[in-house]
Amino acid sequence: MQTILAIDDELSIRESYRMILSDNYHIFLAESGEEGLKILDEKHVDLILLDLTMPRMGGMEFLEAMEERGEFVPVLIVTGSNTVDIAVKAMKKGAREFVIKPFDVDDLLLLVERTLEKLREKRELSTLREQGAAGFENIIGDSPTLLEALASARQAMEVDSTVLITGETGTGKDVLARAIHFGGTRKDKPFVPLSCCAIPANLVESELFGLTKGAFTGATESRVGKMQVADGGTLFLDEIGEMPIEAQGKLLRVLQEGTFYPVGGNREIEVDVRFVCATNRPFDTAIKEGLFRQDLYYRINVLPVDMPPLRKRRDDIPMLVAHFVAKHGPRINSRARDFEPRAMARLMSCPWPGNVRELENTVERILVCNRNELVIKAEFLNGIVANDGATDVSGLEDFAGLPLQEATQRLERHLIIKALERCDHVQSQAAEALGTTRRILKYKMDQLGITEPDDKQSIAS
Question: Is the pTM for the entire model greater than 0.85?
């Protein structure tokens, strides 16, 4: 059972926490910041509910003490102070979100549930990376959709079965393929990639299976194919859907029997190869049109792994940007160390049809164009990053001075409406894009008075 530390100098509030949360969580109660620190010294805590205004050590001082001690427990502020200025100060000290007193019980429960769920997901990711550290260090992010893909990849690492990685261009299918190989039992053997769309159709067979001298005009010498090079290791067939139909039959034979003939050869060759395949488009149409063998599809689709597009894991963008700044900054002599919040918000609002690869190229371009800037500002993105209005951050300054609850509701309402519009009002897709569940999204829509258009009201998933 997960544990929550609730710190508040009011006895009635502490008792409310006990009544509301004790059925699902183990609760520690403290009436001051000093007492809360003592509990942190002695107990494991997953989440802290913190009042800001308390005698002796207030909430801000408690956050500062946590920072000095190197404590990284997520904190939710529950307070009667309701201005944006106080919110910003506490966020800079590490607080995650705010709840205003008097709080709504359902609101608090949903926020606690969401925060602890994200904590569980991060721990799963950490465990996954520890178990399969080799290769996974280059896969950045901790969103639920990415965690699901990595969990499937972890299962694939432990066996030799064929893997089929699906996903749009630029989602990192090649990176994941390498992670599966270098985290598995064949990590000391060759990893051999072959892009089926980068080779002329008439040369795919010879590239894959090798050829014997004189097999065709111009074949002046024998050549070993990728299949033999990968013997004992992994053959990564990228964009396998582009493989010519003629080569697919020979590949099927290797998958079934572990043997093949080189082009123009009459000596059967036996190999021990683990196959990882990838594609950026579904096979249904290709199979119907006779461009891809159905029996081969069944053979390669043993362990499917789906890499999510970047638009379904927007919360990972800050982590990815930080990674790309550290990766490319020194190489191009950029002084930039960070993106200001408004600039990051613009990056998070973009559709990114080219996914992670497009984001990386864009960040590199931004760094090149602003090499002498320490902090990348929103205006530096003009002409480089399209502002499609998905998340309009130009007016955030106008929120200053508003009560926190009103400011938060306005922003939440705006983001939910835009997400619904981008997803054609399919609530399950909008919830995924926002990094939440459909149940929580529907609750928020009802709470904020967001109604669906008449012709969309029946669309839920």
Answer: no
> 299 and 340 share a domain?
no
Q: Give the residue from 349, 381, 413 where a domain finishes.
A: 381
User: d(Cα 173, Cα 305) in Å, to the nearest integer?
Assistant: 9
- Grouping H, G, I as helix, E, B as strand and the rest as coil, residue 336 is coil
Q: Name the residue among 79, 150, 94, 139 with its Cα closest to residue 403.
A: 79
Residue written as token pair 């308390």: 54
Tokens in use for 148? 């699901």
Q: How far is CA 68 from CA 37, 94, 114, in A?
A: 12, 12, 27
Do 323 and 302 have their domain in common?
A: no
pLDDT tens, position by position, 225-245: 999 999 999 999 999 999 999
Distances (CA, A) of 354 to 16, 36, 150: 49, 47, 21
Domain region containing 40? 3-122
On whether both 294 and 180 belong to a single domain, the answer is: yes
- Determine the straight-line distance between the first and last CA of the chain, rounded to whole angstroms: 32
**Domain contains 139:** no
Q: Contact 367/328 with Cβ under 8 angstroms? A: yes
**Residue found by looking up tokens 């938060």 in the block:** 408
Residues 184, 307: Cα–Cα separation, whole Å: 19
Split into its structural domains, the chain has a count of: 4
Same domain? For 302 and 432 the reply is no
pLDDT at 108: 87
Q: Among the three residues 306, 325, 357, which one is the final residue of a domain in this structure?
A: 306
98 forms bridges with which residues in the sheet?
77
